Amino acid sequence: MFLDLNADRFEGEPQHQYCHSCKGVIRQGEPTEMVRFDPDPNHDVESLNGLYHAACAKPFLRMHRAMQAMNRFLRF
Hints:
Layout: E1 17-18, E2 25-26, E3 32-35, E4 50-53, H1 54-74
Antiparallel strand pairs: 1-2, 3-4
């Protein structure tokens, strides 16, 4: 009835990577995107950094491009 979470039992199992957005397993050969936001004191976007499925990453990559464009515009 109890779940055995003994760490030694799972030692030989392969480690999976998970999508930062949908939390699904990223299988070998699937298209992926690594999203990296620069540290920004005004926004907490660093928590969005991570590996995504290519489809899941699209909105975050758009936001990244928009933020870069705004930063270029606002820097005189």
